[in-house]
Specification:
With 399 residues, the chain is mainly alpha-helical. The protein is built from 19 helices and no strands.
Amino acid sequence: MAEPREARSYRLGFGITAWKIGLVGTFIGSILVIRTLVAYSWDPTIFLAFGEEADETLSYGRALLHEVDPRPALGHDGKFFFALANDPFLLDPEDHAAVLDRPTYRAQRMLYPTLAGGFGLFPPRWVMWGMIVVNVLALGAGTWVTARYVEAMGGSPWWGLSFALNPGVLSEVTISGAGVLALALALAGVWLLRRNSWVGATTAFTLAVLSREVYLLAVLGAGLWLWKRDRRRSVLMTGIPLVAAGLWAAYVRWRLADLPTSSPTIQEIGWPLQGIVQAFGGWLRDPFDLTVGLVVAVVAALTIIRTVRMPTLLDLTTVGFAVMVFFLTRQVWQSYFDISRAIAPVLTSWVLSALRHTQATLPSANPLIDWPRCRRSRSTPTSPRPGTSPRRSPRWPKG
């Protein structure tokens, strides 16, 4: 039997397949790493993002790595993941977790430092390189998963680069953040769920939550989509990541009960729109930040509207992040670097939505995925299928 047109459309042009696009994603990550190393005299400690003004973590880094190239001000997340990667199971919190500004909050994100630290077996210099390598591999894996998802739609796997070229994802690579791994796992959960592998999807979503707890938003969205199709599995798929995150959080609080917290546990979430209003004054001094901030706000608002109108699996999985950005505080909204990381899942989803609408309007669109309901033009008469009544129209899957 001949292969359907929509199933083979992605093979047009040079035989590109998803694994090749995954290699392109890995190549992009490698080039970014090399470019950064060249700019900083081949010093890999720049990826750990120690800050000149963060004396405690800077001293910690110098004690383990001797020479450290710090970043301006307080640095960024990589310095905390480095401390966690040296002791991922919090067996010696006085030596490692004690340098965290918010120990229980930081330690909840355990998967990335656990992998980078070789489950606590790597020496500090190996840990540093492990953090870089894990993010580059996660960038390639996330690109591959996105390309596979698009292939299932009958689209070109080149659309998988919407992951590798996501500015929020690339920002995470430069500071050794956990967002690359978390988003790759969340998209793997979406892809596996569309393949009716709810066990695999549950596993992927659980690992995403253990990478960054905010991906509970993705789990809840995917669970809502599955609720209309299989309520028992929806409860299990939502409940297992919640239980896993809760158990690890309880363990973290037990192990770190004696450590003081140097700053409030929640700094990124505030009243609706408060962060945008407070950041606006700073944006006026930097046109680029102003442009990015306004674009992010518009994209987030349109994402919410689109999801309400056409709640597909991918939209439901990422819309929680679009809602969340309106509750973020000034420290996140102030810089394009931070706000792009916060909205990274929405950016990839937004790019793929362009393909979705293109596919939905094509006569040969693939109906196997949960795109919006395909509609035929009323002005174009259609001939009935053989053996069907002229009044009966073909069935199209619901979005």
